[in-house]
Amino acid sequence: MKTFKNLLKVEFKRIFSNGVLMAIFFAAPIGYGIIFGYVYQQAKVLDLPIVIVDQDQSPTTDMIIDAFMDNEGLLVKDVRSTPGNLLEEMPIEQYAAVVTLPVGFEKDVLQKRHPEIRVDLNMANILNANTASNNINMVLMTLNAGMEIEGLKKQGMHPDQAKASYETFKINFNKLYNSAGNYVNFMLPGILAAIMQQIIFLAVALAFSRDFEDGYFASLVEKKKSALYLILLKATPFLIMLPFIWFVVAMYFPYFKITADIFNFPMLVLTVLLTLASMMIGMLFSVAIPNQLKATELLMVISTPAFILSGFTWPTEAIPGWITGVAQFIPVTQFLSGFRRIAFYGGDLASIASEIRILSLITVVAFVAMVLLLQFKVNKTAKKQSLVVEG
Predict the structure, then answer these.
(1) What pLDDT, in 10s, does the model give residues 221-243?
(2) What region, left, alpha or beta, does residue 125 occupy, with left being phi > 0 and alpha being psi -120 to 50 degrees?
(3) What is the pLDDT of residues 31-71, one digit of tens each?
(4) Cα separation of 313 and 307, whole Å?
(5) Which residues form the ABC transmembrane type-2 domain (predicted)?
(6) What is residue 114's three-state secondary structure?
(7) What is the number of H-type helices and E-type strands within the chain?
(8) Would you call 52 helix, strand, or coil by DSSP?
């Protein structure tokens, strides 16, 4: 036990003497969490710039322009009578849409000719385009209904009857789980989980690869020739420090007012399994690739597309089967799947049984492979040492 404590002190010194490792392990989750939290703090997209081309310049089109100006999701940057060079302006000014009210619009409305309002969307940013489209459609549909009802009233129909005649049926949308459409609730948890997987991968990838590079591994083998002992030695500092990092990450939820239930036992189980699975994969790469740079580069290949492939923001049904099959064995994929069931749907351990099973499988397979490979390298190093002593 005394030997283990002494070696553990050395491990902590080696970890804290590595500036890159410290930046990855502490600065990345704290810094990125703050940055991304404030990026999405507004919660939803507001004030998307649009241009209105009013070719009619009538009281009716003035009313439509006023309605657009009152919409919080849209910002009327310019109202003009002619289009001008909008195709040249759009990339520079980043207009989300251009709404064109044609000549004779009011006259056609009054004469029931059903004039057409043209909306040109900037599809370079699909999120902005969809948000702008929804807001524009909401404004125009509301006005359309209002004009139709007013027309019926002018024909002598009672206001209640006019409204009933236009509204054949009503639609009532009941938004569940994220009723405000809050982007902090939607995006930040997934991003934080992907960041945590990545920093665990990269930090633990240096555990053995650094020892192979600077020769410290041979010193460890002289003291202990057990792969299990060395794995425990390398894992212990991270198992001590990671709860602190996870605590900091968890505090972003109340700080940014994320309405997700994460402080419960099923979430603790899921978090522990993500941590262990990521550690085992990172340490396996660290043992298999005795070069710090190559080990971290290969782990980056896994972690970089993990968030996209996880199905958290893009439905897995739209991803080819062979890609989703591979993605199932990236720890964060299972974590995010379970996270949504627990944090938003109120699930329990039974609801994430599949995720628990796969994360446990990843952990066990990576651990066994690491033990076998590390023991082989320990035996190989010990054999070299004995040959040197005998020589």
Answers:
(1) 888 889 999 999 999 999 999 99
(2) beta
(3) 888 888 887 776 677 889 999 999 999 998 999 999 999 99
(4) 8
(5) 153-377
(6) coil
(7) 18, 4
(8) strand
